[in-house]
UniProtKB/TrEMBL annotation:
GO terms for biological process: DNA integration; DNA transposition. Pfam families: HTH_Tnp_Tc3_2. GO terms for molecular function: DNA binding. It comes from Aphanomyces euteiches. This is Transposase Tc1-like domain-containing protein. Gene3D superfamilies: Homeodomain-like, Ribonuclease H-like superfamily/Ribonuclease H. InterPro entries: RNaseH_sf (IPR036397), Transposase_Tc1-like (IPR002492). Residues 77-134 form the Transposase Tc1-like domain.
Length: 157
């Protein structure tokens, strides 16, 4: 716990000015009417406030860009190449992949393959849906099973 009162902003300003003139901590403390340790603590506190330098190259994306990359990849199911084309900074697709891999929460999962729907495939689907559209009284009795085996008696056979 501190024994004395804190240095005021005026005293801090004077101490910095005296220090810039090359005066010693003892001389500054005597001029301000404070203890020499208070001046030493002032220098130590101001030195520890400086943020340490980060080594390495700076990333070209801001936080909002990274959030946008994840939004496009997860919700819009876009590839890294398509995302790279949309970004203003014009990164390479490998940079986008590196950003996506950096997350602990969003992991890569291979998509399930789906058949390519051509107009010839779509027509029978629409006809099937139209056939059953107005048969609302039959829906409670209808089971679409996709060849799934249902065991209604709860027996093991």
């Amino acid at each position: 716990m501190p024994r004395g009162t804190r240095l005021t902003q005026e005293e801090i300003g004077k101490a910095k000015a005296f220090s810039d003139l090359g005066k010693s901590n003892r001389w500054i403390a005597k001029q301000l009417g404070r203890d020499e340790k208070a001046i030493r603590n002032l220098w130590r506190a101001s030195a520890s406030r400086k943020t340490p330098k980060k080594p390495g190259r700076r990333i070209i994306f801001k936080r909002r860009d990274i959030r946008r990359i994840f939004r496009l990849a997860i919700h819009k199911n876009m590839t890294s190449r398509n995302i790279a084309k949309l970004m203003e900074a014009k990164p390479s697709h490998t940079t986008i992949l590196r950003v996506l891999r950096s997350s602990k929460f969003a992991k890569y999962r291979k998509r399930k393959s789906a058949p390519f729907l051509t107009p010839e495939h779509k027509r029978p689907r629409v006809n099937f849906a139209a056939k059953y559209l107005n048969k609302s009284h039959e829906w409670p009795l209808t089971i679409f099973s996709d060849e799934k085996k249902f065991n209604l008696r709860m027996s093991k056979t």
